[in-house]
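Raw record, unedited: NADH-quinone oxidoreductase subunit C
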Amino acid sequence: MTDFAISPEVLRATVAEVLGAKAKSVTLALEEVTVVVGAADYIDAALLLRDAPGCRFEQLIDLCGMDYSDYREGEWQGERYGVVSHLLSVSLNQRVRLKVFAPSEDLPVVDSLQPVWSAATWFEREAFDLYGIVFDGHDDLRRILTDYGFIGHPFRKDFPVSGHVEMRYDEEQKRVVYQPVSIEPREITPRVIREDNYGGGLH
């Protein structure tokens, strides 16, 4: 059992009390507290988590996009795109995970956490680039990892592994040119899970 300055059970109760109806759920698993809020309450919940005396999550340490399109082989019934943030309270030595889901799959939009934690700036650009999630209120929402002319969002579950286009340097034109992907798809052998003691292995 890990020693905590504030026990996860107490933190869960504190967060649930602070957020009240703004939290769809506040769960505890593997000694980690996860909060799910609706898109309409995202900013208000973030401000409460930052400023409430029992929370004081001064730092956003990570933020990334999620695509649940084939989560658990289609058993997922919620929205497709979401954003998960990990928050740290240096002063109280505690952490919490904050999740929000975009209401629309066609144009996934959630509020930007930039006004709450400036560290969100680059993380949200990454989630925009790789998942196509739009962060409303972000003051510089541009691609950050892919090329400016890149088509699509490579971390979406329906994005082809080989991509849509490839680029190369054309010696005649003396510049980089884009063209359709020339890579032939190859057959991938599915992973086989062997039964226990396969091949007479030791117990």
